[in-house]
């Protein structure tokens, strides 16, 4: 069953009044957070014009680890997120509000002389 098919089935069950199990709700939140982080890392890396290997070198990680982060296959620890933000020359913001998840990297301001 494809992701879109599962989502349709899930939505039909919820509309019909079925209650989604707590572990499924928690898993969905984790997936949304992982996906939002992956997108934010990719977009900032693309904005800088660097490769996964270059980002990995800056952050002291492997290219495979960057690939797993950008592929939503892993959720990094807080210390690793800090290293990523430094390597991306940006501040990391994560907003969690119920079902809403927002992850963004804001570039550090540099003095234009």
From TrEMBL:
SUPFAM superfamilies: lambda repressor-like DNA-binding domains. It comes from the Bacteria. Residues 41-95 form the HTH cro/C1-type domain. PROSITE patterns: HTH_CROC1. This is Ribosome-binding protein aMBF1 (Putative translation factor). It comes from Kribbella aluminosa. The lineage of its organism: Bacteria, Bacillati, Actinomycetota, Actinomycetes, Propionibacteriales.
């Amino acid at each position: 069953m494809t992701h879109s098919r599962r989502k349709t089935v899930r939505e039909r069950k919820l509309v019909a009044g079925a209650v989604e199990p707590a572990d499924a709700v928690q898993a969905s939140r984790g997936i949304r957070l992982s996906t939002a982080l992956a997108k934010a890392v990719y977009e900032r890396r693309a904005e800088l014009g660097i490769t996964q290997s270059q980002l990995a070198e800056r952050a002291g990680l492997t290219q495979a680890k960057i690939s797993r982060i950008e592929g939503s296959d892993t959720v990094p620890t807080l210390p690793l997120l800090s290293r990523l933000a430094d390597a991306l020359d940006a501040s990391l913001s994560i907003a969690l509000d119920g079902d809403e998840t927002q992850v963004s990297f804001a570039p550090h301001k540099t003095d234009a002389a």
